[in-house]
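User: Predict the structure for this protein chain, please.
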Amino acid sequence: MLSAPRILHLINELKDRYTNRIIIFDMPSILPLDDVLVLLPYVDSSILVVEESVNTPDQIRHCLETLEGEKFLGTVLNKSTLPRQNYYY
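Assistant: Here is the predicted structure, written as structure tokens:
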């Protein structure tokens, strides 16, 4: 459904109409579905959200390999229980 011409037209229209805004598409996991891969060519950049104690190193590695060569900005650690001072490196 996400690769339908109407959706792609909507994405382009949003980007053209709101050039001074950031449009965020909150997408499902990249692993079990191909929705993210279908939309990657139509977005300006992507961010990988990793959930602490849920995503395994192998899953993260697979996602990073999948996103390699794409307009990838970085990773966000979600639902972390680490002390706040450890967030910044």
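The radius of gyration is 15 Å.
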